[in-house]
Specification:
The structure is a single chain. The chain contains 3 helices and 35 strands. The chain is mainly beta. The chain has 3 domains: 200 residues, Immunoglobulin-like; 120 residues, Immunoglobulin-like (Sandwich), CATH 2.60.40.420; 124 residues, Immunoglobulin-like (Sandwich). The structure holds copper (II) ion. The site of copper (II) ion has 5 residues, from loops.
């Protein structure tokens, strides 16, 4: 009898976990209002809850809904002339990193990484992606840039994957200076590692204190080639003795890495694209970089020789032509942003949130889309049973992220930057520590806060991309927003 019940329960779990061939991001997850008032959402009732619809008055008011496709840059001037315009051709290719081993992957304009895109703060940026022959389709996501939702590049949520022979035009205003990167958000667990990514730098509108700056992407290709801007080994950036140089570093891998500076002091000027307030000199510390994260380091070229910025297996030598700097092992001391720099105003009151969410990451056996496995959970639930975080525009939101899953997770919220309030109950005391990619280790608990100021449907997921495939995905859903796009095996859209 008990056995029969157990079998029935398992069978029901399996049945209930299966996804339809096409489904909307609006159907994903169980609405969580974070202690605030219920909000409207699109037409789709949650799966398993027929007749869901509008939680406020029980009816859908189509007239009140805004489509994610209409959440664009400069809606009043859709044809405004861009300041920066780039065309990118995505192709399937045999890729050989400089000094590295070949693999079957992808290129953008014939190379991986794709071209570095540079804009100045305030510029209207237009990027046209042409998919020449990437069979599964492709998109571009602007990692860390709080773009309008229609430009977020998430297949099946904010657009359809760009099929071979087709194009898509991204337009956004480069509002926040900083270091970012772009990558495909279609079948991303395969396309990003195999080459569909590049650097995006938004230069400040006011002149910077540094003599020059250089962007470097750390990446491990499928051939196990560990690279810096596509080169295995060391790169060199020319600078004169005494020059202060901003080295913009992005970790484009699925796993954590670290960077350090051999032979001199350095400062951490920015984290995840946001300048640190009052950065002080550091020495002999390694700076951890979780998946997707960026750090801008300021180094000063010595009077003789050069200075070397290192990461495991790769490095950047900064100095005059022909100069060199010794390699050093990774320092044992670890840079901690939670005490670094000087506090300053956040611009909002995080002590009086409109909504407070919890994002507890765990792991347990169960079914994800009918597949048995040992899946990631959010607040104890797998897949569609995980929460959908519901917000209204203007809400001040806090989120407590904990992890008891046995592994660390680089958590990435699209469309917003969150500020770290505390870690393991210890308040942040340094510069406001703004993140879009936050490493939450097993056993850790972070309290973060943000202002819901960018309407749309935004992924909030693990950027160890295979983990996203394994269900570590939720969405932040704004009041009154709807998406016409669909995911699932019948749609060609597979954002993870
Ligand atoms: Cu993860």
């Amino acid at each position: 009898m008990l056995l029969a019940l157990a079998v029935l329960l398992v069978a029901w779990s399996w049945w209930d976990s299966r996804l339809p061939g096409a489904y909307s991001a609006e159907e994903m997850g169980v609405p969580d209002y974070g202690g605030g008032p219920a909000t409207h959402r699109g037409h789709q009732p949650p799966l398993g809850a027929p007749g869901g619809g509008d939680p406020v008055d029980g009816a859908d008011d189509a007239a009140d809904l805004v489509s994610v496709a209409d959440l664009i840059a400069s809606p009043s001037q859709p044809d405004a002339e861009p300041d920066v315009r780039v065309e990118l051709e995505a192709r399937t290719a045999q890729v050989t990193p400089e000094n590295g081993k070949a693999f079957a992957g992808f290129t953008l304009n014939g190379s991986s990484p794709g071209p570095e895109i540079r804009a100045r703060q305030g510029d209207l940026v237009e990027v046209v992606v042409h998919n020449v022959d990437v069979a599964g389709g492709a998109t571009l996501h602007w990692h860390g840039v709080d773009v309008p939702n229609a430009m977020d590049g998430v297949a099946g949520v904010t657009q359809d994957a760009v099929a071979p022979g087709e194009s898509f035009t991204y337009r956004f205003v480069a509002e926040d200076a900083g270091t970012y990167w772009y990558h495909s958000h279609q079948i991303s667990h395969r396309q990003v590692v195999a080459g569909l990514f590049g650097a995006l730098v938004i230069e400040p509108s006011t002149p910077s204190d540094q003599a020059s700056d250089v962007a470097v992407l750390l990446h491990t290709y499928p051939s196990n080639s560990r690279s810096i801007n596509g080169t295995v080994g060391a790169l060199w950036h020319e600078a004169a003795p005494g020059d202060r140089v901003r080295v913009r570093i992005a970790n484009t891998d699925n796993g954590n890495t670290a960077v350090w500076v051999a032979g001199g002091d350095f400062r951490v000027l920015a984290i995840d694209g946001t300048d640190v307030n009052g950065p002080t000199a550091l020495r002999d510390q390694r700076v951890p970089l979780t998946a997707g994260a960026r750090a801008d380091l300021e180094v000063t070229v010595p009077a003789t020789g050069a200075i070397r910025v290192q990461a495991p297996g790769v490095s950047l030598v900064v100095g005059p032509a022909g100069s060199n700097a010794p390699e050093t092992p990774s320092p044992s001391a670890v840079f901690d942003p939670i005490t670094y720099g000087t506090p300053t105003d956040l611009g909002f009151d995080a002590t009086a949130p409109d909504r407070s969410f919890v994002y507890n990451i765990g792991r347990r056996p169960g079914f994800l889309d009918g597949r048995p496995g040992y899946w990631w959970t959010v607040n104890g639930n797998i897949g569609m049973a995980a929460p959908m975080y519901m917000v209204g525009e203007g809400d001040v939101v806090t989120m407590r992220i904990t992890n008891q899953s046995g592994e660390g997770h680089p958590m990435h919220l699209h469309g917003h930057h969150a500020v770290v309030l505390s870690r393991n109950g210890v308040p942040a005391t340094g510069s406001p520590w703004w993140v879009d990619s936050l490493d939450v280790d097993h056993g850790e608990a972070y309290e973060v806060a943000f202002v819901a100021d960018n309407p749309g449907v935004w992924m909030d997921h693990c950027h160890n991309l295979p983990h996203a495939v394994e269900g570590l995905i939720t969405h932040l859903m704004y009041d009154g927003v709807t998406t016409p796009f669909r995911m699932g095996k019948d749609t060609g859209n597979e954002p993870e």
